[in-house]
Description:
This protein is about 35% helix and about 25% strand. By secondary structure, the chain is of the alpha+beta class. The chain folds into two domains: about 5-120, no CATH class; about 125-154, no CATH class. Strands 1, 2, 3, 4, 5 and 6 form a six-stranded antiparallel β-sheet that branches. It is elongated, with a radius of gyration of 18 Å. It starts with a strand and ends with a helix. About 20% of the residues are buried. Bound molecules: zinc ion (ZN). Zinc ion binds near residues 106 and 108. The site of zinc ion has 8 residues, from loops.
Amino acid sequence: MRSQRQVVDYSLQRRAVLREVFSGRVSSHEVCDASPYLKSAARFHGEPTDESCPICHRENLTHVHYIYGDELKQSAGQARNRAELSLLAMTLREFQVYVVEVCRVCNWNHLVEQYLLGRDGLGVAGGDGEADGAVAVSGGGRPSMTKRRREAQR
Ligand SMILES: [Zn+2]
């Protein structure tokens, strides 16, 4: 998605967990613990992927996108599909997206990545990233607007 920014990738942590499972130090029951809420979110709002489940290899993984942010009000913490995310990204200034992968067969689940979406990242006539840079420079050594806003959300 075009306005996707401040991406945090969790593939290293994911690989570490899988290594523990494959080596036998952690049982697959401990990591295949998707809650009923996560499973129903996967069924109703999930996006299919081409990647097969690393634990059972019986089904492709489903990605669930959870949204957080003050502007979302009562929708915060809910799952949304890609089309709904694009729509929100055009109407809201900024919100956080957490992508979780789920296997609907064995219940394997893990955080894939998180990022920010919203109009704030689209920039004005000039291109990606310029708006953020401008804010950081005018801050004169202080934390950038974006960073302070994120901290306020915690
Ligand atoms: Zn599985």
